[in-house]
Amino acid sequence: MKALVYSGSGRRSWTDVPDPVLVDPEDAVVQVDAVTICGTDLHILGGDVPEVESGRVLGHEAVGTVLQVGSGVRQVAVGDRVLVSCISSCGRCRFCRIGQYGQCLGGGGWILGHTIDGTQAERVRVPYADNSLHVLPPRVSDEDAVLLADILPTSYEVGVLAAQVSPGDTVVIVGAGPIGLAALITSRLFSPSAVIVVDSSPARRETAAALGADVVCGPDDDLRAIISDRTGCLGADVTIEAVGRPETFELCADLVRAGGHVANVGVHGAPATLHLESLWIKDVTITTGLVDTRTTPLLLRMLAEGKLDVSGLVTHRFGLDEMQDAYDVFSRPQESQALKVVLFGEGGI
């Protein structure tokens, strides 16, 4: 089969690799019908995730059709149309038993496209299939569903829920890429008084406004004055970092009010300065984390019932064999205006 293979920092190829096979009784093999590219994949190609070995098939988000299941699989069957979660879960270890699947000790967690071959391929082996695949309702499209493999639960769990967004809050989201926009969509579920989105790209600010941002700002705007005017000089109740750069994390820490919450969602490849000399007295809570995907069933129900609108997040569509072109577009968002790119196999809908 064909797959996107990482060959060391800055090198990738769409090439032939062996077909996946069942290794453990709880495995499933899934035909990939739709797959997307994550900013984390770009971090891997940039050398920021050194544990990813040369020769690894990348990708951790997909929708597909189950082709094979192991003897221990009970909840999914051959022919099922499924969402492949970015997080795999053994379901038995200490962390899985409390819903902290991203920290799975039983061989799960973030493994697809990380420590085992991933989803940017014609087929993929999924460990712990009963806990790591979600059967899709017929009325949910592949394109919408694939957004629930990673960016929606990540933004919701690591951003909105971790920051305890509440009715009436002023929320500042720094970064209007896919993660930041997903944080915008899910933060609005809690009726904040204002969501302010900051991004350097005019096109992304325009998208944020279309998705419901109350205020959109560029890096040259007087953010402190804008937020002060909205909050009676207090500062933002919640700031969500959705870029993964030192300067954007430091901006979030600067804009939060005393007693507020900074939720870091972005993947960082370089150290950021934590200004404890000014933060220690402000009772600020800072959270980080890897998504657990415990909310994926909830988000999937909301999507199926028309309560979660993800339209506008996918900007480019390709065939699966156009993987290299899709990477080129996704990696140059300032030129291509790309948000999420989705690639469809022959069975995609």
Task: Describe the overall structure.
With 349 residues, this protein is α/β, with parallel strands linked by helices. It is 26% helix and 23% strand. It has helices at 39-45, 129-132, 142-145, 151-161, 178-187, 202-210, 223-231, 246-255, 276-279, 296-304, 323-330, 333-336; strands at 2-6, 12-16, 28-36, 62-69, 81-84, 123-126, 133-135, 170-174, 194-198, 215-217, 236-241, 256-264, 285-287, 314-319, 340-344. The strands form 3 sheets. Strands 3, 4, 5, 6, 7, 14 and 15 form a 7-stranded mixed beta sheet that branches. A 6-stranded parallel beta sheet has the order 10-9-8-11-12-13, with helices on both faces. Helix 4 (151-161) crosses helix 5 (178-187). The longest helix is centred in the middle third of the chain and has 11 residues, at 151-161. The radius of gyration is 20 Å and the shape is globular.
Write the layout of secondary structure elements.
Layout: E1 2-6, E2 12-16, E3 28-36, H1 39-45, E4 62-69, E5 81-84, E6 123-126, H2 129-132, E7 133-135, H3 142-145, H4 151-161, E8 170-174, H5 178-187, E9 194-198, H6 202-210, E10 215-217, H7 223-231, E11 236-241, H8 246-255, E12 256-264, H9 276-279, E13 285-287, H10 296-304, E14 314-319, H11 323-330, H12 333-336, E15 340-344
Parallel strand pairs: 8-9, 8-11, 9-10, 11-12, 12-13, 14-15
Antiparallel strand pairs: 1-2, 3-4, 3-6, 3-15, 4-5, 5-7
Helix pairs in contact: 4-5
Outline:
The chain is of the alpha/beta class and 349 residues long. Helices cover 26% and strands 23% of the residues.
